[in-house]
Design goal:
Largest interface: A-B, 79 and 79 residues
Oligomer: homodimer
Shape of chain A: globular
Largest sheet of chain A: 5 strands, parallel
Helix content of chain A: 25-40%
Strand order of the largest sheet of chain A: 3-2-1-7-19
Chain lengths: 458, 458
């Protein structure tokens, strides 16, 4: 029995390890295009600045370590064709550029996603980078070492752009961030976007929203960026927009691709083609709040999907399920923590809900306890049923509040359920009533007011 | 319509404020024995050391502030009799020692709990204190100022004893802690107790477990403590054992008292006597995990109960419900965070569950992210159904893990539900898979092993 896995980052390596644990006999081969498998891609922005000291720290396991578990990991290999009828693979060894054939009994597609550079004039200049793989940080690192850029431009105000902005500032660069929409952190509501922009500006980042880059200028090396009627000098550009799932190979093999342009899988991570599973950043899943197809490429989710795909491929059964995601995410930008779960108000409205929400700024600990800081929390709920639809938070302890709300969404709780929830209180850890309880109580207050209306009429 | 509330700390003042908001016309009087209402009792250990700078910081609202909302708060008044037939109260003004009569239409009993000193010889010596009220910290503070104690003894290794130990150390005292059971933090499993004891010892606290105090010695002032075959010099003793609900008045009035010796209320905080509600540290509630009566006096719960009692008393209706508690708690001792929700393994077994558990030490952030620290998490579940029964955590981020698990318990999730839960991941906030997911996966692993057994037989 031969299991072949295409892709060796989070989902692929997890699937391989799971399959090996469940089946000590199975042949397992992982093909990986990049030179290292098992990369912690979420750590790349921190490698740029030296917050993560060594690139080795981001490699969870080398091919040798996998070999110890009898898992063959072939890096610098690209699978270029899948014949599902004969179960044959065409593989290119990128070191020699030679091709060879392989076969599989069961296949897991974990080809991930890639960053694409938008077709902006000058995007091919030296000094314009994307950031997706460890090799990207290698290139950026070399460029920084050779040319000591003083001014950097980030294109895109999503979480990668924001994390990179922080880390380039740490290197002493003067950083500008350009976002095409009218605010950064667009997956969040306007309160959070404002907080993020304020944090960027407080740390010296020039923030330009509602601006599309017209051109990168320079002779050989980038030396400027034009947008609107502005032109900024820049020695380095990192483009943090345009990530797409790598599905071309699967699509050519006849695997169904979904509305999100990622691979369709069922709850068992099975694709539309027999003996082919898929997992990670290349697959489409379900947003469990909206019930709609979702493509949310994140390392933790990829890991969870890989576990399910690896288990089910190893057992050739529907042993485990991956039900879907909530759309939970978090990032840090300078000293601001920003997290989200479920749907934003805008996303909830687009999904057809009639939305009620309550946002508040609360203390992160008892008001009298030293070091008290503020945290924003917004709860988003369905007016008709009270069901919690989402939450977003920014500030001290936003990670905790986000995870409480993610768990509440996972349990399909409503905001009235949260008014009396028994969370952990002591003065160093929060106000007596958690911001989650406070926000749920505000939402419930609408009920009180309705009731007061009834009383007034009596 | 006249509402009288007995007790003006967390539950009583919250009930008063809620009632006023819902009914602008109602007469509302709060009787409070202590000289200040609305005290943040959880902050008292931190006032001792000056971590909380001023006692005023622990007074959320003065009687004058309540008067602004047309709520009469009479401090230094003790209600000594309740005639439920005539709805009359006998009240003593403790400043003049005079008594007078009052009446009520609706009554809320929020008389709280008190610390009782165990009948140990020498417990009446000067320098032996309990810590429950702001007036206790006033007395301890005066004693410390006058006598500059160098050596302090804490009796009791529960969370109050532990918090006090930390705060007396901050004052430069040499602190010993004596616990009758064989470990501190008895509500937790042995791993957490060990961590707490190690943290105490690392900070210079002498920990004596399995020891009962035989005698406090001294002439007038305490100067020693005898236990087992030991005798320690001590200049100050704080006894952190023996908290009891204040229910004598309610019991005399015919209100039903429960097996926990606290007042029985229904889900609407109504007592067994008509027109009498109760809330806070004097009431018995339900542990929603075990389904059994529970008495867990905590400030946040008192606040939530007060909201329900105040609303229902104001509306004379079953407007709001308080379903019960999980037994969630948290404390900090030096740099160690310790939290719990639901049942410990021992408590779960006592409640009749067949218990499975998984404990692990995990990272509090990505292994490569600077400042990584360890955190312990144990999940406790029901073998038959997989239902989560409890969790306990110690270390960095224990508050977050406790609250995630509390929310999972609140939603009655099982451990298989938690394997794929979509929590917030980025390198500064946790490992790629939360310790909650890791522990749930370990529990699920038993399933895999069972399955492997089946495969081996095939």
């Amino acid at each position: 029995m031969r299991l072949v896995i295409l892709g060796g980052v989070a989902a692929g390596t997890k699937a391989a390890s799971r399959a090996r644990r469940l089946d000590p006999e199975m042949e397992i081969t992982v093909y990986q295009e990049e030179p290292e498998p098992s990369i912690s891609e979420c750590g790349l922005p921190y490698l740029l600045s030296g917050v993560v000291g060594k690139r080795e720290n981001l490699i969870a396991r080398t091919p040798e370590k996998f070999a110890d578990k009898d898992i063959e990991v072939l890096v610098r290999h690209r699978v270029e064709g899948v014949d599902t009828a004969s179960k044959k693979l065409s593989v290119r060894d990128l070191r020699t550029d030679e091709t060879f054939d392989d076969t599989y009994d069961r296949l897991i597609v974990a080809t991930g996603a890639r960053a694409v550079l938008p077709p902006i004039p000058g995007v091919d200049l030296d000094g314009v980078f994307k950031l997706r793989f460890l090799t990207d940080t290698d290139e950026i690192g070399r460029y920084i070492e050779e040319r000591s850029p003083r001014k950097a431009t980030i294109v895109g105000g999503g979480y990668i752009g924001l994390e990179v902005a922080e880390n380039l500032c740490r290197l002493g660069m003067e950083v500008s961030l350009i976002e095409g929409e009218d605010r950064v952190a667009l997956a969040y509501g306007p309160e959070v976007s404002e907080s993020v922009e304020a944090e960027l500006e407080a740390n010296g980042v020039g923030v330009y929203t509602g601006e599309m880059v017209d051109e990168f200028t320079g002779e050989g090396h980038v030396d400027g960026v034009k947008f609107g009627d502005r032109e900024l000098e820049t020695d380095l550009v990192i483009v943090g927009v345009g990530i797409r799932p790598n599905v071309e190979l699967a699509a050519e093999a006849g695997v169904e691709i979904g509305v999100t342009e990622a691979i369709v899988v069922d709850r068992h991570m099975k694709t539309s083609v027999s003996d082919i599973w898929a997992a990670g950043d290349c697959v489409q899943t379900t947003n469990l709040v909206s019930g709609r197809p979702a493509w949310i490429p994140l390392g933790d989710t990829a890991n969870q999907m890989g576990r399910v795909a690896g288990t089910n491929a190893a057992t050739d059964d529907e042993t485990l399920e991956f039900p879907g995601v909530l759309g939970t995410g978090i990032f840090k930008v300078f000293d601001l923590n920003v997290g989200k779960t479920g749907l934003s108000e805008k996303e909830a409205e687009e999904a057809g809900f009639e939305v009620v929400s309550a946002g508040l700024w609360a203390n992160d600990r008892a008001a009298y306890y030293p070091g008290v800081q503020k945290v924003f929390l917004k709860l988003i709920a369905d007016r008709a049923t009270g069901r919690l639809l989402g939450a977003e938070s920014a500030g001290s302890g936003a990670d905790k509040l986000t995870d409480i709300c993610a768990t509440a969404l996972w349990g399909r709780l409503s905001y009235p359920d949260l008014v009396n929830i028994d969370l952990a209180y002591a003065p160093p850890y929060g106000p007596a009533l958690s911001p989650v309880i406070q926000a749920a109580t505000i939402l419930s207050g609408k009920f009180d007011r309705a009731r007061e209306g009834v009383r007034a009429k009596e």
